[in-house]
Amino acid sequence: RARATGVGFTFSFSRLSSIFTSFLVVAILNHFGASGVFLRLKYHFMAPAYWINDPNGLIFYKGYYHLFYQHFPYGSTWGSMHWGHARSKDLVSWEHLPVALAPSEEYDLDECGGCFSGSAVEHDGVLYLIYTGTIIRGDKVIQSQCLAMSDDGIVFKKYERNPVIPAPPAEGSNDFRDPKVWRHNGKWYMVVGSCKDGKGKALLYSSEDLRNWSYINVLAESDGSLGSMWECPDLFSLGDKHVLMFSPMGMGEKKTIYLIGDMNYDIGRFTWDRMGEVDCGFEYYAPQSFVDPQGRRIIIGWSNAWDWMPWFQSFGPTSENNWCGAMSIPRQISLGSNGYLLFSSIEELKSLRTNHFRLTDLNVHPCQSVIPVHVRGTSIEILVEIQWASEMLDSFGFQLRCSPDGEQKTTLEYTIARQELIFDRTHSDGFSSGVCKMKINQMDQSLKLHIFVDTCCVEVFVNDGEQVMSNNIYPSIEADGIEFFCNGSDIRIVSLDAWNLRSIW
Ligand code: FRU
Protein backbone atom coordinates (compact mmCIF):
# COMPACT_ATOMS: atom_id res chain seq x y z
CA ARG A 1 0.00 0.00 0.00
CA ALA A 2 1.12 3.49 -0.75
CA ARG A 3 0.94 4.97 2.74
CA ALA A 4 0.46 8.67 3.25
CA THR A 5 4.14 8.81 4.00
CA GLY A 6 4.91 6.80 0.87
CA VAL A 7 6.64 8.53 -1.98
CA GLY A 8 7.04 8.06 -5.72
CA PHE A 9 8.76 4.71 -5.54
CA THR A 10 5.92 3.00 -3.72
CA PHE A 11 3.40 4.34 -6.15
CA SER A 12 5.20 3.40 -9.35
CA PHE A 13 5.99 0.00 -7.91
CA SER A 14 2.35 -0.47 -7.11
CA ARG A 15 1.36 0.50 -10.65
CA LEU A 16 3.77 -2.01 -12.22
CA SER A 17 2.72 -4.76 -9.89
CA SER A 18 -0.94 -4.03 -10.46
CA ILE A 19 -0.47 -4.44 -14.24
CA PHE A 20 1.22 -7.75 -13.53
CA THR A 21 -1.47 -8.88 -11.13
CA SER A 22 -4.24 -7.76 -13.54
CA PHE A 23 -3.15 -10.56 -15.86
CA LEU A 24 -3.06 -13.05 -13.02
CA VAL A 25 -6.43 -12.04 -11.64
CA VAL A 26 -8.13 -12.12 -15.04
CA ALA A 27 -6.63 -15.55 -15.72
CA ILE A 28 -7.89 -16.84 -12.38
CA LEU A 29 -11.33 -15.30 -12.74
CA ASN A 30 -11.68 -16.84 -16.20
CA HIS A 31 -10.73 -20.17 -14.73
CA PHE A 32 -13.35 -19.98 -12.00
CA GLY A 33 -15.98 -18.34 -14.13
CA ALA A 34 -16.42 -15.45 -11.70
CA SER A 35 -16.65 -11.87 -12.76
CA GLY A 36 -16.34 -8.80 -10.58
CA VAL A 37 -19.39 -7.31 -12.29
CA PHE A 38 -21.49 -9.88 -10.50
CA LEU A 39 -19.76 -9.13 -7.26
CA ARG A 40 -21.49 -5.75 -6.83
CA LEU A 41 -22.87 -5.90 -3.31
CA LYS A 42 -26.59 -6.16 -2.65
CA TYR A 43 -27.02 -4.29 0.63
CA HIS A 44 -23.62 -2.88 1.52
CA PHE A 45 -22.76 0.66 0.55
CA MET A 46 -20.41 1.05 -2.44
CA ALA A 47 -19.43 4.07 -4.52
CA PRO A 48 -21.19 4.33 -7.91
CA ALA A 49 -17.86 3.16 -9.33
CA TYR A 50 -14.15 3.09 -8.55
CA TRP A 51 -12.23 3.24 -5.32
CA ILE A 52 -13.54 3.70 -1.78
CA ASN A 53 -11.82 3.60 1.61
CA ASP A 54 -12.62 5.13 5.02
CA PRO A 55 -16.08 6.38 5.97
CA ASN A 56 -15.91 10.11 6.72
CA GLY A 57 -18.18 12.78 8.14
CA LEU A 58 -20.98 10.57 9.43
CA ILE A 59 -23.80 12.80 10.62
CA PHE A 60 -27.57 13.21 10.70
CA TYR A 61 -28.20 16.64 9.11
CA LYS A 62 -31.47 18.26 7.99
CA GLY A 63 -33.45 15.01 7.88
CA TYR A 64 -30.83 12.75 6.27
CA TYR A 65 -28.01 10.53 7.38
CA HIS A 66 -24.91 11.63 5.49
CA LEU A 67 -22.07 9.29 4.63
CA PHE A 68 -18.93 10.73 3.09
CA TYR A 69 -16.05 8.50 2.13
CA GLN A 70 -12.49 8.45 0.88
CA HIS A 71 -12.86 8.11 -2.86
CA PHE A 72 -10.77 8.06 -6.01
CA PRO A 73 -13.28 8.87 -8.77
CA TYR A 74 -10.91 8.08 -11.67
CA GLY A 75 -9.93 4.49 -10.96
CA SER A 76 -10.42 1.41 -8.86
CA THR A 77 -7.17 1.66 -6.93
CA TRP A 78 -6.17 4.23 -4.31
CA GLY A 79 -5.39 7.65 -5.83
CA SER A 80 -5.61 11.34 -5.00
CA MET A 81 -8.30 11.45 -2.35
CA HIS A 82 -11.72 13.04 -2.82
CA TRP A 83 -14.70 12.86 -0.48
CA GLY A 84 -17.50 10.83 -2.06
CA HIS A 85 -20.96 11.51 -0.65
CA ALA A 86 -24.32 9.80 -0.16
CA ARG A 87 -27.37 10.29 2.02
CA SER A 88 -30.05 8.08 3.44
CA LYS A 89 -33.34 8.30 5.33
CA ASP A 90 -32.84 4.99 7.13
CA LEU A 91 -29.13 3.99 6.98
CA VAL A 92 -30.17 1.14 4.67
CA SER A 93 -30.93 2.63 1.22
CA TRP A 94 -28.54 5.27 -0.07
CA GLU A 95 -28.80 8.06 -2.60
CA HIS A 96 -25.52 8.97 -4.29
CA LEU A 97 -24.67 12.69 -4.27
CA PRO A 98 -21.96 14.66 -6.10
CA VAL A 99 -18.40 14.44 -4.81
CA ALA A 100 -18.25 16.77 -1.79
CA LEU A 101 -14.54 17.58 -1.67
CA ALA A 102 -11.92 17.39 -4.39
CA PRO A 103 -8.23 18.31 -4.11
CA SER A 104 -7.95 21.89 -5.35
CA GLU A 105 -5.77 24.02 -3.06
CA GLU A 106 -2.08 24.21 -2.33
CA TYR A 107 -2.67 22.36 0.96
CA ASP A 108 -4.62 19.42 -0.53
CA LEU A 109 -3.75 19.23 -4.25
CA ASP A 110 -1.39 16.34 -4.80
CA GLU A 111 -1.46 13.14 -6.85
CA CYS A 112 -0.28 11.22 -3.80
CA GLY A 113 -2.34 13.18 -1.28
CA GLY A 114 -5.66 14.98 -1.42
CA CYS A 115 -8.54 15.39 1.01
CA PHE A 116 -7.84 12.73 3.61
CA SER A 117 -10.22 11.41 6.26
CA GLY A 118 -12.15 13.52 8.71
CA SER A 119 -15.50 14.19 10.30
CA ALA A 120 -18.59 16.42 10.22
CA VAL A 121 -20.44 18.61 12.72
CA GLU A 122 -23.43 20.92 12.51
CA HIS A 123 -23.43 24.41 13.98
CA ASP A 124 -26.24 26.96 13.53
CA GLY A 125 -27.64 24.99 10.60
CA VAL A 126 -24.30 24.91 8.74
CA LEU A 127 -22.65 21.57 7.99
CA TYR A 128 -18.89 21.67 8.61
CA LEU A 129 -16.48 19.08 7.23
CA ILE A 130 -13.09 18.88 8.95
CA TYR A 131 -10.51 16.93 6.95
CA THR A 132 -6.76 16.50 6.49
CA GLY A 133 -5.19 18.24 3.51
CA THR A 134 -2.28 16.08 2.36
CA ILE A 135 0.52 17.02 0.00
CA ILE A 136 3.97 15.52 -0.59
CA ARG A 137 6.97 17.81 -1.00
CA GLY A 138 10.16 15.95 -1.79
CA ASP A 139 10.08 12.99 0.53
CA LYS A 140 8.08 14.83 3.17
CA VAL A 141 4.37 14.44 3.76
CA ILE A 142 2.64 17.66 4.84
CA GLN A 143 -0.65 17.13 6.61
CA SER A 144 -2.83 19.95 7.92
CA GLN A 145 -6.38 20.14 9.24
CA CYS A 146 -8.88 21.98 7.05
CA LEU A 147 -12.49 23.11 7.04
CA ALA A 148 -15.28 23.18 4.45
CA MET A 149 -18.86 24.39 4.92
CA SER A 150 -22.28 23.91 3.38
CA ASP A 151 -25.77 25.33 3.92
CA ASP A 152 -27.56 22.57 2.07
CA GLY A 153 -25.40 19.54 2.89
CA ILE A 154 -24.60 19.01 -0.80
CA VAL A 155 -22.36 21.82 -2.06
CA PHE A 156 -19.28 22.55 0.05
CA LYS A 157 -16.96 25.53 0.05
CA LYS A 158 -13.48 25.31 1.52
CA TYR A 159 -12.72 27.86 4.23
CA GLU A 160 -10.62 30.70 2.75
CA ARG A 161 -8.25 30.72 5.73
CA ASN A 162 -7.43 27.01 5.57
CA PRO A 163 -5.62 25.20 6.99
CA VAL A 164 -7.10 25.78 10.43
CA ILE A 165 -4.28 23.69 11.98
CA PRO A 166 -1.30 24.08 9.64
CA ALA A 167 1.23 21.83 11.38
CA PRO A 168 1.54 19.21 14.13
CA PRO A 169 2.55 20.13 17.69
CA ALA A 170 5.98 19.11 18.99
CA GLU A 171 4.41 15.99 20.53
CA GLY A 172 3.33 14.79 17.05
CA SER A 173 5.02 14.26 13.69
CA ASN A 174 4.41 14.68 9.96
CA ASP A 175 1.86 11.88 10.19
CA PHE A 176 -0.91 14.10 11.47
CA ARG A 177 -4.33 13.23 10.16
CA ASP A 178 -7.98 12.16 10.45
CA PRO A 179 -9.56 14.85 12.68
CA LYS A 180 -12.69 13.81 14.59
CA VAL A 181 -14.60 16.76 16.04
CA TRP A 182 -17.32 16.80 18.73
CA ARG A 183 -18.94 19.23 21.15
CA HIS A 184 -18.63 19.05 24.92
CA ASN A 185 -19.78 21.61 27.49
CA GLY A 186 -20.13 24.40 24.93
CA LYS A 187 -16.72 23.87 23.31
CA TRP A 188 -15.50 22.06 20.20
CA TYR A 189 -12.91 19.34 20.61
CA MET A 190 -10.83 17.57 17.98
CA VAL A 191 -8.75 14.42 18.20
CA VAL A 192 -6.09 13.90 15.51
CA GLY A 193 -4.09 10.73 14.78
CA SER A 194 -0.31 10.96 14.91
CA CYS A 195 2.85 9.27 16.14
CA LYS A 196 6.31 9.96 17.45
CA ASP A 197 9.35 7.70 17.80
CA GLY A 198 7.39 4.75 16.47
CA LYS A 199 4.50 5.12 18.94
CA GLY A 200 0.95 5.93 17.91
CA LYS A 201 -0.79 8.92 19.52
CA ALA A 202 -4.08 10.75 19.65
CA LEU A 203 -3.67 14.54 19.96
CA LEU A 204 -6.36 16.74 21.49
CA TYR A 205 -7.35 20.27 20.42
CA SER A 206 -10.18 22.61 21.38
CA SER A 207 -11.91 25.58 19.78
CA GLU A 208 -14.68 28.09 20.42
CA ASP A 209 -15.62 28.60 16.77
CA LEU A 210 -14.28 25.66 14.68
CA ARG A 211 -11.82 28.06 13.00
CA ASN A 212 -9.25 28.81 15.71
CA TRP A 213 -7.85 25.77 17.44
CA SER A 214 -5.59 25.40 20.50
CA TYR A 215 -3.52 22.33 21.17
CA ILE A 216 -4.29 20.83 24.59
CA ASN A 217 -2.47 17.56 25.18
CA VAL A 218 -1.63 14.04 24.09
CA LEU A 219 -5.02 12.48 24.72
CA ALA A 220 -3.56 8.95 24.78
CA GLU A 221 -0.60 7.15 23.27
CA SER A 222 0.90 3.75 22.61
CA ASP A 223 3.46 2.40 25.03
CA GLY A 224 5.04 0.66 22.05
CA SER A 225 2.66 -2.30 22.12
CA LEU A 226 -0.33 -0.47 20.63
CA GLY A 227 0.97 0.40 17.20
CA SER A 228 3.33 2.82 15.53
CA MET A 229 0.73 5.26 14.16
CA TRP A 230 -2.91 5.76 15.13
CA GLU A 231 -5.20 6.35 12.16
CA CYS A 232 -8.76 7.60 12.48
CA PRO A 233 -8.99 8.10 16.26
CA ASP A 234 -12.49 8.65 17.64
CA LEU A 235 -13.28 9.56 21.26
CA PHE A 236 -16.85 9.41 22.56
CA SER A 237 -18.82 8.89 25.72
CA LEU A 238 -20.86 5.73 26.20
CA GLY A 239 -22.88 5.37 29.39
CA ASP A 240 -20.67 6.63 32.20
CA LYS A 241 -17.44 5.70 30.37
CA HIS A 242 -15.46 7.03 27.43
CA VAL A 243 -14.28 5.01 24.45
CA LEU A 244 -11.24 5.71 22.30
CA MET A 245 -11.36 3.82 19.02
CA PHE A 246 -8.56 3.90 16.43
CA SER A 247 -6.90 1.91 13.67
CA PRO A 248 -3.29 1.31 14.64
CA MET A 249 -0.58 0.72 12.06
CA GLY A 250 1.95 -1.94 12.98
CA MET A 251 -0.20 -4.07 15.28
CA GLY A 252 -0.25 -7.08 12.96
CA GLU A 253 -3.63 -8.75 12.83
CA LYS A 254 -5.21 -6.20 15.15
CA LYS A 255 -6.65 -3.58 12.84
CA THR A 256 -9.11 -1.63 14.92
CA ILE A 257 -8.82 -1.24 18.66
CA TYR A 258 -11.06 0.24 21.31
CA LEU A 259 -10.01 1.35 24.76
CA ILE A 260 -12.55 1.95 27.54
CA GLY A 261 -11.80 4.37 30.33
CA ASP A 262 -12.35 7.89 31.61
CA MET A 263 -11.82 11.31 30.12
CA ASN A 264 -10.41 14.20 32.08
CA TYR A 265 -11.28 17.34 30.11
CA ASP A 266 -9.40 19.55 32.59
CA ILE A 267 -6.04 18.18 31.49
CA GLY A 268 -7.15 16.68 28.17
CA ARG A 269 -6.15 13.15 29.08
CA PHE A 270 -7.89 9.81 28.56
CA THR A 271 -7.00 6.90 30.88
CA TRP A 272 -8.18 3.39 30.19
CA ASP A 273 -8.33 -0.06 31.73
CA ARG A 274 -10.07 -2.22 29.13
CA MET A 275 -9.07 -2.98 25.56
CA GLY A 276 -10.86 -4.88 22.82
CA GLU A 277 -11.00 -5.29 19.06
CA VAL A 278 -13.79 -3.59 17.16
CA ASP A 279 -13.67 -6.37 14.59
CA CYS A 280 -11.40 -9.43 14.47
CA GLY A 281 -11.72 -10.14 10.74
CA PHE A 282 -9.29 -9.61 7.90
CA GLU A 283 -11.30 -6.77 6.46
CA TYR A 284 -12.51 -4.00 8.71
CA TYR A 285 -10.71 -0.70 9.14
CA ALA A 286 -11.06 2.98 10.00
CA PRO A 287 -14.55 2.88 11.56
CA GLN A 288 -16.16 6.16 12.51
CA SER A 289 -18.94 6.71 15.05
CA PHE A 290 -21.79 9.20 15.34
CA VAL A 291 -24.91 9.63 17.42
CA ASP A 292 -28.21 9.52 15.57
CA PRO A 293 -31.43 11.39 16.53
CA GLN A 294 -32.60 8.41 18.65
CA GLY A 295 -29.40 8.68 20.67
CA ARG A 296 -27.84 5.50 19.29
CA ARG A 297 -24.04 5.40 18.92
CA ILE A 298 -23.51 3.89 15.47
CA ILE A 299 -20.29 2.92 13.72
CA ILE A 300 -19.57 2.25 10.07
CA GLY A 301 -16.24 0.80 8.97
CA TRP A 302 -14.46 0.33 5.67
CA SER A 303 -14.86 -3.35 4.89
CA ASN A 304 -11.35 -3.78 3.57
CA ALA A 305 -7.95 -3.18 5.06
CA TRP A 306 -4.64 -2.06 3.65
CA ASP A 307 -2.89 -5.39 3.94
CA TRP A 308 -5.67 -7.59 2.60
CA MET A 309 -4.33 -7.80 -0.93
CA PRO A 310 -2.92 -11.28 -1.25
CA TRP A 311 -0.52 -10.48 -4.07
CA PHE A 312 1.54 -7.36 -3.82
CA GLN A 313 -0.71 -4.42 -4.48
CA SER A 314 -3.56 -6.27 -6.14
CA PHE A 315 -6.83 -4.68 -5.17
CA GLY A 316 -8.78 -7.85 -5.79
CA PRO A 317 -11.26 -9.21 -8.32
CA THR A 318 -13.74 -6.34 -8.19
CA SER A 319 -11.13 -3.80 -9.10
CA GLU A 320 -10.80 -5.43 -12.52
CA ASN A 321 -14.40 -4.36 -13.00
CA ASN A 322 -13.90 -0.76 -12.02
CA TRP A 323 -14.91 -0.78 -8.42
CA CYS A 324 -13.21 -1.57 -5.15
CA GLY A 325 -14.23 -1.21 -1.53
CA ALA A 326 -17.41 -0.94 0.48
CA MET A 327 -18.75 -0.04 3.91
CA SER A 328 -19.71 -2.51 6.61
CA ILE A 329 -23.32 -2.61 7.71
CA PRO A 330 -23.97 0.09 10.31
CA ARG A 331 -23.46 -1.31 13.82
CA GLN A 332 -24.95 0.01 17.01
CA ILE A 333 -22.58 -0.12 19.96
CA SER A 334 -23.32 -0.26 23.66
CA LEU A 335 -21.53 -1.14 26.88
CA GLY A 336 -21.96 -4.75 27.96
CA SER A 337 -22.41 -5.75 31.61
CA ASN A 338 -18.77 -6.93 31.64
CA GLY A 339 -17.62 -3.42 30.73
CA TYR A 340 -16.66 -4.28 27.15
CA LEU A 341 -18.38 -3.14 23.94
CA LEU A 342 -21.30 -4.93 22.35
CA PHE A 343 -21.97 -4.59 18.62
CA SER A 344 -25.30 -5.23 16.94
CA SER A 345 -26.61 -4.76 13.43
CA ILE A 346 -29.03 -1.83 13.35
CA GLU A 347 -32.76 -2.66 13.51
CA GLU A 348 -33.45 -0.97 10.19
CA LEU A 349 -31.70 -3.78 8.32
CA LYS A 350 -34.65 -6.06 9.14
CA SER A 351 -36.55 -4.19 6.40
CA LEU A 352 -34.40 -6.06 3.86
CA ARG A 353 -35.63 -9.50 4.91
CA THR A 354 -37.66 -11.51 2.39
CA ASN A 355 -38.08 -15.33 2.28
CA HIS A 356 -37.87 -16.75 5.75
CA PHE A 357 -36.68 -20.23 6.72
CA ARG A 358 -36.91 -21.36 10.36
CA LEU A 359 -36.15 -24.51 12.25
CA THR A 360 -36.17 -25.12 15.99
CA ASP A 361 -35.01 -27.73 18.42
CA LEU A 362 -33.20 -30.00 16.00
CA ASN A 363 -30.62 -32.59 16.99
CA VAL A 364 -27.88 -33.00 14.42
CA HIS A 365 -25.67 -36.13 14.31
CA PRO A 366 -22.17 -36.04 12.86
CA CYS A 367 -22.98 -39.00 10.60
CA GLN A 368 -25.68 -36.89 8.98
CA SER A 369 -22.70 -34.78 8.05
CA VAL A 370 -24.75 -31.89 6.68
CA ILE A 371 -28.14 -30.29 7.16
CA PRO A 372 -28.94 -28.18 4.14
CA VAL A 373 -30.36 -24.82 5.06
CA HIS A 374 -33.29 -24.27 2.72
CA VAL A 375 -32.41 -20.76 1.81
CA ARG A 376 -30.13 -20.14 -1.13
CA GLY A 377 -28.66 -16.95 -2.41
CA THR A 378 -25.70 -14.65 -2.32
CA SER A 379 -27.38 -12.16 0.01
CA ILE A 380 -28.55 -13.82 3.22
CA GLU A 381 -28.93 -13.29 6.96
CA ILE A 382 -28.72 -16.19 9.43
CA LEU A 383 -29.49 -16.09 13.13
CA VAL A 384 -28.65 -19.29 14.96
CA GLU A 385 -28.37 -20.56 18.51
CA ILE A 386 -26.53 -23.81 19.15
CA GLN A 387 -26.17 -25.91 22.32
CA TRP A 388 -24.14 -29.02 23.09
CA ALA A 389 -23.74 -31.39 26.00
CA SER A 390 -21.21 -33.99 24.91
CA GLU A 391 -17.51 -33.70 25.71
CA MET A 392 -16.94 -35.59 22.47
CA LEU A 393 -17.97 -32.70 20.25
CA ASP A 394 -14.99 -31.42 18.23
CA SER A 395 -16.46 -28.68 16.13
CA PHE A 396 -19.49 -27.44 14.26
CA GLY A 397 -20.31 -24.71 11.82
CA PHE A 398 -21.47 -23.70 8.39
CA GLN A 399 -20.25 -24.09 4.87
CA LEU A 400 -21.25 -20.81 3.27
CA ARG A 401 -21.47 -19.88 -0.41
CA CYS A 402 -21.18 -23.51 -1.54
CA SER A 403 -21.13 -24.12 -5.29
CA PRO A 404 -23.26 -26.96 -6.72
CA ASP A 405 -20.12 -28.88 -7.79
CA GLY A 406 -18.59 -28.56 -4.31
CA GLU A 407 -15.52 -26.72 -5.64
CA GLN A 408 -16.25 -23.50 -3.79
CA LYS A 409 -17.15 -23.18 -0.13
CA THR A 410 -16.23 -20.95 2.79
CA THR A 411 -15.99 -22.60 6.19
CA LEU A 412 -17.16 -20.91 9.38
CA GLU A 413 -16.29 -23.39 12.13
CA TYR A 414 -16.24 -23.28 15.92
CA THR A 415 -13.70 -25.61 17.52
CA ILE A 416 -14.58 -26.62 21.07
CA ALA A 417 -11.09 -27.44 22.38
CA ARG A 418 -9.54 -24.19 21.25
CA GLN A 419 -12.68 -22.07 21.71
CA GLU A 420 -11.96 -20.50 18.37
CA LEU A 421 -14.24 -19.36 15.61
CA ILE A 422 -12.45 -19.98 12.34
CA PHE A 423 -13.21 -18.39 8.98
CA ASP A 424 -11.42 -20.41 6.32
CA ARG A 425 -11.42 -19.07 2.79
CA THR A 426 -8.97 -21.59 1.31
CA HIS A 427 -11.73 -22.92 -0.96
CA SER A 428 -13.83 -19.78 -1.22
CA ASP A 429 -13.13 -18.71 -4.77
CA GLY A 430 -9.61 -19.51 -5.96
CA PHE A 431 -8.50 -15.98 -5.21
CA SER A 432 -8.98 -15.44 -1.47
CA SER A 433 -6.75 -17.12 1.05
CA GLY A 434 -6.12 -17.15 4.75
CA VAL A 435 -7.73 -18.54 7.86
CA CYS A 436 -9.02 -15.96 10.32
CA LYS A 437 -9.23 -17.16 13.94
CA MET A 438 -11.15 -15.46 16.71
CA LYS A 439 -10.89 -16.59 20.34
CA ILE A 440 -14.34 -16.69 21.97
CA ASN A 441 -15.01 -16.10 25.67
CA GLN A 442 -16.97 -19.31 26.05
CA MET A 443 -18.95 -19.33 29.29
CA ASP A 444 -21.24 -22.31 28.70
CA GLN A 445 -21.89 -24.93 26.06
CA SER A 446 -23.77 -22.71 23.68
CA LEU A 447 -23.03 -20.26 20.92
CA LYS A 448 -25.07 -17.64 19.09
CA LEU A 449 -24.12 -16.47 15.62
CA HIS A 450 -25.63 -13.68 13.56
CA ILE A 451 -24.28 -13.92 10.04
CA PHE A 452 -24.65 -11.43 7.18
CA VAL A 453 -23.63 -12.79 3.79
CA ASP A 454 -23.44 -10.49 0.78
CA THR A 455 -22.08 -11.00 -2.72
CA CYS A 456 -18.47 -10.69 -1.65
CA CYS A 457 -18.38 -10.24 2.12
CA VAL A 458 -19.43 -12.00 5.30
CA GLU A 459 -19.95 -10.29 8.68
CA VAL A 460 -20.36 -12.53 11.74
CA PHE A 461 -21.62 -11.27 15.11
CA VAL A 462 -20.96 -13.67 17.99
CA ASN A 463 -22.88 -14.11 21.27
CA ASP A 464 -25.10 -11.04 21.03
CA GLY A 465 -22.33 -8.93 19.58
CA GLU A 466 -19.52 -9.55 22.06
CA GLN A 467 -17.25 -10.02 19.05
CA VAL A 468 -17.48 -9.43 15.32
CA MET A 469 -15.55 -10.76 12.35
CA SER A 470 -15.69 -9.37 8.81
CA ASN A 471 -14.06 -11.01 5.82
CA ASN A 472 -14.31 -10.72 2.05
CA ILE A 473 -14.70 -13.59 -0.39
CA TYR A 474 -15.32 -13.65 -4.14
CA PRO A 475 -17.21 -16.85 -5.04
CA SER A 476 -19.08 -17.23 -8.32
CA ILE A 477 -22.74 -16.27 -8.34
CA GLU A 478 -23.72 -19.95 -8.56
CA ALA A 479 -22.10 -20.59 -5.17
CA ASP A 480 -25.29 -19.90 -3.25
CA GLY A 481 -25.72 -22.91 -0.94
CA ILE A 482 -25.46 -23.12 2.85
CA GLU A 483 -24.85 -26.26 4.92
CA PHE A 484 -24.58 -26.91 8.63
CA PHE A 485 -22.22 -29.58 10.00
CA CYS A 486 -20.86 -30.98 13.27
CA ASN A 487 -17.94 -33.27 14.04
CA GLY A 488 -17.38 -35.73 16.90
CA SER A 489 -20.79 -35.78 18.54
CA ASP A 490 -24.39 -34.59 18.45
CA ILE A 491 -25.33 -31.01 18.65
CA ARG A 492 -28.63 -29.19 19.12
CA ILE A 493 -29.79 -26.34 16.98
CA VAL A 494 -32.01 -24.46 19.42
CA SER A 495 -33.23 -22.22 16.63
CA LEU A 496 -32.12 -21.20 13.19
CA ASP A 497 -33.66 -18.38 11.18
CA ALA A 498 -32.48 -17.49 7.71
CA TRP A 499 -33.70 -14.83 5.33
CA ASN A 500 -32.89 -13.72 1.82
CA LEU A 501 -32.05 -10.03 1.88
CA ARG A 502 -33.28 -7.82 -0.94
CA SER A 503 -31.02 -5.47 -2.82
CA ILE A 504 -30.93 -1.80 -1.86
CA TRP A 505 -29.83 -0.72 -5.34
C1 FRU B 1 -6.95 5.17 6.84
C2 FRU B 1 -6.22 6.24 6.06
C3 FRU B 1 -6.26 7.55 6.80
C4 FRU B 1 -6.11 8.55 5.71
C5 FRU B 1 -6.85 7.90 4.57
C6 FRU B 1 -6.26 8.17 3.22
O1 FRU B 1 -7.39 4.12 6.04
O2 FRU B 1 -4.90 5.83 5.79
O3 FRU B 1 -5.28 7.66 7.82
O4 FRU B 1 -6.67 9.77 6.06
O5 FRU B 1 -6.84 6.52 4.82
O6 FRU B 1 -7.09 7.69 2.21
From TrEMBL:
It is found in: Cell membrane; Cytoplasm. PROSITE patterns: MFS (PS50850). One of its GO terms (molecular function) is beta-fructofuranosidase activity. It is a multi-pass membrane protein. Pathway: Glycan biosynthesis; sucrose metabolism. SUPFAM superfamilies: Arabinanase/levansucrase/invertase, Concanavalin A-like lectins/glucanases, MFS general substrate transporter. Its EC number is 3.2.1.26. InterPro entries: ConA-like_dom_sf, GH32_Enzymes, Glyco_hydro_32, Glyco_hydro_32_C, Glyco_hydro_32_N, Glyco_hydro_beta-prop_sf, MFS_dom, MFS_trans_sf. The chain crosses the membrane at residues 19-39. It catalyses: Hydrolysis of terminal non-reducing beta-D-fructofuranoside residues in beta-D-fructofuranosides. It comes from the Bacteria. It holds the Pfam family Glyco_hydro_32N. Belongs to the glycosyl hydrolase 32 family. Enables the bacterium to metabolize sucrose as a sole carbon source. This is Sucrose-6-phosphate hydrolase. It comes from Fodinisporobacter ferrooxydans.
